[in-house]
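thread: overnight batch results

M.L. [08:02]
morning all. the overnight job finished for the chain we discussed friday. pasting input first so we're all looking at the same thing
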Amino acid sequence: MQSVLVTREIFPETLQRLAQHFQVTPNEGDVQHPPGALAGQLAGHEGVLVAGGERIDAALLDANPQLKAVCNMAVGYNNIDVPACTARGVLVTNTPDVLTETTADFGFALMMATARRIAEGEHYLRDGRWTRWSYNLLTGSDVHGATLGILGMGRIGQGIARRGALGFGMNVIYHNRSRLPAEQEAPINARYVSKEELLREADHLVLVLPYSAASHHAIGAAELALMKPTATLTNIARGGIVDDEALAEALKRGTLAAAGLDVFEGEPNVHPALLTVPNVVLTPHIASATVRTRRAMADLAADNLIAALTGQRAPTPVNPEVIR
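M.L. [08:03]
and the structure it wrote out:
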């Protein structure tokens, strides 16, 4: 019987499904293995369900030539060296679609919390500083009727655009590697613009682009300087897309009104400067964190792993060219 490794704790029902097909090595204690340790953990396993963003690189693959499938429980896969997997005939899969609407919900909620200073307001109240009404107490910026800028107009970006345009009457502008077909732009009245125009015009900028070497620090000091001082920035994409140090400086200096961040460079570590500014809402990478959605992600990752190792076609391959 083939063996599979599950790198982090997941739903017991998912483990039971996998156990019907394979010998399963779970991580019931949810231990985070130090860098480099995963290669040893993978010894003797033909498949791995990556549930915590662990790095799968060429060195790990070379140490485990028996590996046939790497199934990521996430839509993003920047933790996996896909070309290295492809060169070795290892199938990579991810979990798109099942988290689109939940993540779009969260992104819009984080943007609203940022615009309306909800976290600041809660801290103000809990600290006992609220003693009377004031006309300018924690005044934020409107969401309805404002200009919503989206950098990265994939499934989740389009979900956020729908919420803004149809629910809040927002003017939607976006920049993407390629323009959407007119029939996708029209229902949400979305307008394609250059990246520079997006930064200059957006009242609320939401980042939903995939991480790659090309998108590293796509938002840095120069880009932040183009934005309105009244604007907000929300990142639900990946850490590293934003230069967190430059962002903290812009927030401190008031050249950007506020930010909402669910992802960070080097997470779970957070740049210390971000912890010292009040005008940022910080959440621990939980955009897809509803029970139903996480169950769907685990189920799809398991579907991929079962299919990949039993001669079936995996539902959502990243590198389908390795399938024979």
